[in-house]
Amino acid sequence: MITENEMKLEFDSRSCNEGFARVSVAAFLTQLNPTLEEVADVKTALSEAVTNAIIHGYEGKVDKIIITCRIYDQTIEIQVMDRGVGIVDIPQAMEPLFTTKQDCERAGMGFSFMEAFMDTLEVTSSPGKGTIVKMTKKILHTDNRYEG
Amino acid sequence: MEDNFQISGTNLTIRLPAEVDHHNSEELKRKADRMLMENNIRCIIFDFGRTNFMDSSGIGMIMGRYKNLRFMGGVVVAIRVNERMKKILNMSGIYKVMDIYEDLPEQSCLM
User: Fold this and answer.
1) CATH code of residue A47
2) Do B56 and A113 touch (CB under 8 A)?
């Protein structure tokens, strides 16, 4: 069984790529033998991060989003990076229901969902330079040989 | 996607796609709002029958339709919601403004 592995994905910040990003990361994750629920958790968190990069980071402009996934110690670490506008006040951005895009009917739940579905979440950002969202999740599901 | 929007009386049923994300929420919003403008709709039924993925963009889309409809005294309900979608709906708190039914929208829209 592979204990360490890494992949990198670079794509345009177009909303039609959101599904592509989810499926790609989910496919990479399967080597940890996750449950369906764990796959759904990771897909949801990733979707939030990529959507944030498209809507907030690049504000609809087309540029590159880079996803790096690393597997170690039965854990998946996902990093979503954009070179967009960045976040001025990170704690405020992470508050549940807070959104800078009220008129676009954003729920303001992106970071809350990421926190809920992953084990750790780290946001680094500098205004004008971009944002990096790093999150990890330990895949607890192990094969049956450990049972009974 | 037109087939996925069905009007019966004052009910609008929206058959959601397999995945409801930012990308297709935008289109759903546009179409739903056009139908709300052109028809006398008092109840939107979101049919989750074939939906297995939704993120917070979908929540925003539902929330927005709820706000538009409530303004006119209407209601929003969800039907055929699987366990995963129930979890997402519960986490978002949207269940407070939207009833969830197994099926049979005619029982849920009290007109």
Assistant:
1) 3.30.565.10
2) yes
